[in-house]
Amino acid sequence: MYTVYIITNKNHTVLYTGVTFDIVARMIEHKEKIFEKSFTAKYNCHKLLYFEHWEDRNDAYHREAQIKRYRRAWKMNLINKNNPFWKDLNEEIFRNFYDS
Known about the structure:
Layout: E1 2-8, E2 15-20, H1 23-32, H2 39-42, E3 47-54, H3 57-69, H4 72-82, H5 90-99
Antiparallel strand pairs: 1-2, 1-3
């Protein structure tokens, strides 16, 4: 299953949209800054604010591109509808992964 996600840093100053086949592994990579020169490492982005699952790879990549095209205000609205307190959802995905 593919996951389209939005992460931020602790001050919510940047939003990063990505797609992955393994959301748990990807969040660990962001947290551990595996790719040292990446945007997410540079801006300390690892707080998961939003995600949606897709069965089809092409649909997931299309959705990622769609979200990336939108302005910050639209992305914030998407997050606010689903996660109004901007809670870090990493715990939720880890719990769901290990409960499976």
